[in-house]
């Protein structure tokens, strides 16, 4: 697992790269603000309920939450489940929102 900054992510999104972004917050948090990532709450990731992203195992998967703590845990679990290239978004959606205001 590695980290990625919101600045790096913004550059890549602005360049229209194909990105695999996973949001591990709760649905209520996602409803408040999101960047269009695939939503699978951390509890589901930790219990292995990741059928929707099984085909991402060989992709670079950028994981975020609100501040970067839950996504760190999700990255570690995803690696145990066979994901080869996970990246934790530093500062999470809070940093993303601050950058894009």
Quick rundown:
The chain has 101 residues and is of the alpha/beta class.
Helix-strand layout with pairing:
Blueprint (H helix, E strand, L loop, with lengths): L1 E3 L1 H9 L5 E4 L3 H6 L5 E2 L2 H5 L13 E5 L4 H12 L4 E5 L2 H8 L2
Parallel strand pairs: 1-5, 2-3, 2-4, 4-5
Biggest β-sheet: strands ordered side by side in the sheet: 1-5-4-2-3
Low-confidence parts lasting 5 or more residues at pLDDT below 50?
none
Number of helices: 5
Structural class: alpha/beta
Shape: globular
What is the CA–CA distance across the termini?
28 Å
What is the average per-residue confidence, as pLDDT, rounded to a whole number?
Answer: 97
Query: What gyration radius follows from the Cα positions, in whole Å?
Result: 12 Å
Beta-strand percent range: 15-25%
The tally of strands reads 5
Largest sheet: 5 strands, parallel
* Fraction in helix: 25-40%
SSE pattern:
EHEHEHEHEH
């Amino acid at each position: 697992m590695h980290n990625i900054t919101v600045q790096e992510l913004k550059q890549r999104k602005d360049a229209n790269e194909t990105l695999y972004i996973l949001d591990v917050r709760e649905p209520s948090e996602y409803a408040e603000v999101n960047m269009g990532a695939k939503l699978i709450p951390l509890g589901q990731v930790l219990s292995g309920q990741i059928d929707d992203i099984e085909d991402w195992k060989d992709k670079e998967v950028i994981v975020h939450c609100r501040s970067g703590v839950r996504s760190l845990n999700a990255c570690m679990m995803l690696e145990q489940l066979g994901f080869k290239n996970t990246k934790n978004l530093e500062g999470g959606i809070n940093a993303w929102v601050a950058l894009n205001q």
